[in-house]
């Protein structure tokens, strides 16, 4: 068969019968990247999603910032989901039908555990309330703890569009998510038991993002998601839902993940941090490290924080000018110093994605998690010789044009109508990583692409 994984017995010397035969079983799996390049690796049959991520982090010399994620992608259904770090990958593969294009994808997702850090961004007040027994409104400072507590659970509620079974039409209902499962009301917004119709629980179901809600499933918006039985593999097994905006969809999916996995999800979140040991260099007191100015005839300690930043920027600029002077020294003596550096310096940066279109930029940022500060830079498709900063804030993606400005024969860049100027795009990115300026938030994470 052409299924992307195989099973075989490795050749080892005879072992005592007391040792389980399962340790001899290895499997070959194929893992894809965003650009659809793939790599086949041989792994033990009990491997978890986190193990595979660690394997590719080591093979590709990636920085392990705990955002690398394994995804299950079902092309024939147009859906995908995060495979949680603790999940058995072979169990996921065993649910795939032989004649479908199902894939594993390895990529970053900065929003995977962001709800543990910023629950208010994921659970709007109007969608969350305490269960009827406590007769009150949920305290957001303890929201996640309430989700993880087996005896209590916040109730998520709001309107969703649902696709009617065996029909092409969608209908809007009021939905309620409780620990016992997902329900919709057949009478307005009533939560009375006699009006609530059971839709699904999550003991034997998974939650997927709908990647083609409008195009493939005829949804009224692009904010689709679905619940799929772990035993089903066809479109008939999907319970398709659709929210009115990204914030609502993220709230529903996050709540369902928390209800399904509970404390295990929190253990997945803290496990990498528990394994980290402080570096020996960190034993040096932070007070022993001071900022110094070496630009004058005598060195001096810099005490003003603002001056520290300006000196650091100036030193970086000085280094770039020297580097560019060395580069331009190999060319024509008549070439101006500013004509070479500003064009080429950004090309090798991981945050620069060249001729990426607006739609591709939005898709890449969405794939890597709609978290504040996630960004990339790209060439402008509509205005040649200019650039665009694509930035995520409040689960929305915004685009800011970066214009080249002629400053007395030297080319500089600005994204705030020439109020703040930068000699190159690297300096611009570094500035907005430290300062919000005219942007809605600081630049925090850059979208990264790797070749497997």
From TrEMBL:
<dbReference type="InterPro" id="IPR000980">
    <property type="entry name" value="SH2"/>
</dbReference>
<dbReference type="InterPro" id="IPR015042">
    <property type="entry name" value="BPS-dom"/>
</dbReference>
<dbReference type="GO" id="GO:0008286">
    <property type="term" value="P:insulin receptor signaling pathway"/>
</dbReference>
<dbReference type="GO" id="GO:0046627">
    <property type="term" value="P:negative regulation of insulin receptor signaling pathway"/>
</dbReference>
<comment type="similarity">
    <text>Belongs to the GRB7/10/14 family.</text>
</comment>
<dbReference type="InterPro" id="IPR011993">
    <property type="entry name" value="PH-like_dom_sf"/>
</dbReference>
<dbReference type="GO" id="GO:0005886">
    <property type="term" value="C:plasma membrane"/>
</dbReference>
<dbReference type="InterPro" id="IPR039665">
    <property type="entry name" value="PH_APBB1IP"/>
</dbReference>
<dbReference type="Pfam" id="PF00017">
    <property type="entry name" value="SH2"/>
</dbReference>
<dbReference type="Pfam" id="PF21989">
    <property type="entry name" value="RA_2"/>
</dbReference>
<feature type="domain" description="PH">
    <location>
        <begin position="153"/>
        <end position="261"/>
    </location>
</feature>
<dbReference type="InterPro" id="IPR036860">
    <property type="entry name" value="SH2_dom_sf"/>
</dbReference>
<keyword id="KW-0597">Phosphoprotein</keyword>
<keyword id="KW-0727">SH2 domain</keyword>
<dbReference type="InterPro" id="IPR029071">
    <property type="entry name" value="Ubiquitin-like_domsf"/>
</dbReference>
<dbReference type="GO" id="GO:0005737">
    <property type="term" value="C:cytoplasm"/>
</dbReference>
<feature type="domain" description="SH2">
    <location>
        <begin position="351"/>
        <end position="447"/>
    </location>
</feature>
<dbReference type="InterPro" id="IPR001849">
    <property type="entry name" value="PH_domain"/>
</dbReference>
<protein>
    <submittedName>
        <fullName>Growth factor receptor bound protein 14</fullName>
    </submittedName>
</protein>
<feature type="domain" description="Ras-associating">
    <location>
        <begin position="27"/>
        <end position="111"/>
    </location>
</feature>
<keyword id="KW-0963">Cytoplasm</keyword>
<dbReference type="Pfam" id="PF00169">
    <property type="entry name" value="PH"/>
</dbReference>
<dbReference type="InterPro" id="IPR000159">
    <property type="entry name" value="RA_dom"/>
</dbReference>
<dbReference type="Pfam" id="PF08947">
    <property type="entry name" value="BPS"/>
</dbReference>
<dbReference type="InterPro" id="IPR039664">
    <property type="entry name" value="GRB/APBB1IP"/>
</dbReference>
